[in-house]
Backbone:
């Protein structure tokens, strides 16, 4: 079943779509085509949404699965004129997307939203980006742009810690999560250094902002309860991010203890090559 709804959580005036398939439910905002909630079963929330997030004054919503496109992070001055005036993570997190297609199939519920940008800083003609959401016993997100343009993209997923571990009491819990399927080489954006590690695992116990090269097609978040599996395609990098205490406190749209409740594990295509985009993420708890 697919229904339109106004409001989700504290974002009471936000235009959204709700998808249901069996026991599973997902909510996606028309603003940013941002998946805000995925519950494979009732009360089993996979994504983290900041209780202080807002979608007013052009703000990007903090949490869920923001779409970074056509660039990831700060704009690159070598490719984008006036890079310093351009927003972090591209131009579509604060746009209202349109409905392109919806289908209630026997095997899944599916919704596609699209956004057309008439002018991009580095492209002469209008370009359309599509986001397809497929809900079955998993949630699959497909981000597609058929234009052969220079573009980066990331599915900046905020995964909630709560369903991964048996007890969520105390501040130590995020440190119990093992992240698997990363590669052995990454750029550490906290130290600014290229770094090698002995295996493809990681734990988070301090500020973490890493860009891993060529991650596996399957990554996992493992606690002592339900493991979360993320299958991906079209990626050339994975990003692992947690702001930790000081940066959480400095972010107006994040509670001071926000960093204890999520891990961002992101499917990303970061190579600047003029070619079409197809980036896919499938989430299973
Ligand atoms: O994906 C990690 C990252 O690029 C970090 O460097 C961090 O700043 C984060 O994204 C959040 O960016 P935002 O623009 O949403 O505040």
Residues:
């Amino acid at each position: 079943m697919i229904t339109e709804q106004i409001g989700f959580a504290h974002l009471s005036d936000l235009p959204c779509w709700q998808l249901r398939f069996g026991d599973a439910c997902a909510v996606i905002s028309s603003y940013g085509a941002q998946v805000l909630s995925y519950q494979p079963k009732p009360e089993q929330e996979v994504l983290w949404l900041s209780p202080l997030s807002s979608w007013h004054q052009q703000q990007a919503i903090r949490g869920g699965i923001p779409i970074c496109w056509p660039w990831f992070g700060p704009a690159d001055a070598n490719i984008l004129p006036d890079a310093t005036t351009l927003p972090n993570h591209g131009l579509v997190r604060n746009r209202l997307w349109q409905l392109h297609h919806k289908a209630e199939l026997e095997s899944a519920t599916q919704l596609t939203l699209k956004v057309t940008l008439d002018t991009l800083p580095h492209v002469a003609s209008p370009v359309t980006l599509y986001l397809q959401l497929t809900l079955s016993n998993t949630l699959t997100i497909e981000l597609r742009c058929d234009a052969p343009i220079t573009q980066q993209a990331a599915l900046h997923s905020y995964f909630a810690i709560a369903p991964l571990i048996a007890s969520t009491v105390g501040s130590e819990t995020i440190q119990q999560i093992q992240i698997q399927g990363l590669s052995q080489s990454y750029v550490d954006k906290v130290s600014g250094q290229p770094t090698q590690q002995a295996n493809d695992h990681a734990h988070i116990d301090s500020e973490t902002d890493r860009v891993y090269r060529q991650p596996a097609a399957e990554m996992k978040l493992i606690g002592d309860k339900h493991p979360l599996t993320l299958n991906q395609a079209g990626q050339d990098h994975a990003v692992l991010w947690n702001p930790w205490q000081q940066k959480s406190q400095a972010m107006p749209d994040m509670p001071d203890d926000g960093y204890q409740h999520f891990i961002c594990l992101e499917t990303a295509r970061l190579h600047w090559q003029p070619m079409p985009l197809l980036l896919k993420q499938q989430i299973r708890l």
In short: The pocket of 6-O-phosphono-beta-D-tagatofuranose is lined by residues 60, 73, 88-89, 156, 189, 209, 239, 241, 264, 266 (CB under 6 Å). DSSP finds one helix and 20 strands in the chain. The mean pLDDT is 95. Residues 200 and 260 are 23 Å apart (CA to CA).
